[in-house]
Write a structure and sequence with these properties.
alpha+beta, 24% helix, 20% strand
Length: 553
Amino acid sequence: MSATPSRRTVIAGTGGAAALGALPATAHAGPTPERAGELTLTDRLAHAKHRAAVPEIFRAPPRVRSHTDVIVIGTGFGGSVAALRLGQAGASVAMLERGSRWPRDPWRRTHASDTLADGRALWHKRTFMNLTNLPTVVDKFGGVLDDTEYEHLRVWRGAAVGGGSIVFTGVLLEPPKRYFEHVFGSTVNQREMHARWYPKARRMLRASPMPRDVYRSAPFGHSRRWDAHVRRAGFTPQPLDGIWDWDVVRDELAWRSRRSATIGESNYGNANGAKYDLTLNYLPAAEATGRVTVHHGHVVDRIGQDRRGRYTVDLRVVDPTGETRETRTVTCDRLVLGAGSIGTSELLVRARHEGTLRHLDDSVGEGFGTNGDGALVQFLAPSGGLSQASPSASTILDASGDLPARMENWYALGLQVNATVIGSLGMVMDPARASFQYRTDRDDVVLDWPADGNAAAEAALRAMHDKVAEANGVVTGMPLLGVPDVATSFTAHPLGGAVIGEATDAHGRVKGHRGLYVMDGAGIPGSTGTANPSLTITALAERNIARIIADGR
């Protein structure tokens, strides 16, 4: 059952993807690729085009050994940290990633366009709701963004080597101290995180604010307008750190690279390296140890433990069309779960139901939250330019209401030519929580997020957004197109399901199962305290894996 504490108890009174028009979700779609036999002629013709455009992703992945010291499931922030540090410590590590390994090129379009998407955008799905509340229809293919649908909530996550770093908007933000302590309590020491682990993560990810020359350039007119709007409403915008390589952004502005970040591309990847994603830092550093291998196209269906105590991983090797190349079971001595809140929670809940991991307790599957996500739109708000660049410049925080709420400067998703819309991403410190449960009638893991689960977050963001709109005489939402002022039927920041200090010990070691670790957003209790989770996931993984290596367990 889900638990929703009184929202007034949460510090009351203390001081990516085309999200803005998302519709409510219906049923869980699951992470499994479509079978090749279900593809239409249109799909197959599109796949031929993708093969010609990006032949690299069709190459067979390296084969995983039948037994490895360590297997890491997922190549996102937490998994990449664990793989690097374990490799440096002398372990042999195999990283399993369901998505493709996309090439980098300063001029070639290897990823889908955010405006004219195709199958390279979505993970084996035909439709996606865009900014105008109309479906984007694509061919079924192994694209980089997974739009998983549950009842009352849709969840966006990465499906590529690099995980969520490929599809996120690049914001790296540390939560305020009091909010961090409220979320993690005594389980994780905020002073230690602030002094040691957040700085380590920032150095690896090269976190930095937007330079002034970039901020003043034409594609960031919407950022300057956003700052002016919030100032008129009495807020003081603060600069955001980003994961962007500003030299590549400058190359785009000078036409030394194909324009990507400067024309509103981010949700489906930035092939020119403008986004300094995990394929440019943690992952190459891990492979450079000579002990870490990355295996793309590996979909993990089940995990368990054999009679010898080794962990078992049931997997399918798939190509980008969804066709299964091979089905295998491999083993390892230690297993790191880095598949994100959804992937890790589903694997653990299924393992508990099927009895393949016999000592998982009832806390597994609990503590899921959306990080209070919302997408906000101002209409008839001239952005100061036609093209809106992807990197976010600024943020504001409002702690005056019952729930602390944040807004961040965001680009108008899905529209590269847009002079009248200004978008914001919102995050609220909302205590609403849900759980993952196994449904025997569906033979699947479901999420029991309630229909009104985002009501408090939506109200908090609307109050903040309306204050800004009223101060500037602009409209909220896009009424003629049916786009809401505050969209909360989605989350791009799924968190929880194997919460640190509950399903695991204080360093991510799963209770009852020696050598099994949670290193991703599943370990975070539903919120990162009005902050984007990527930096906290990275810093927490650095902290946890350092202790695991030091303890030898």
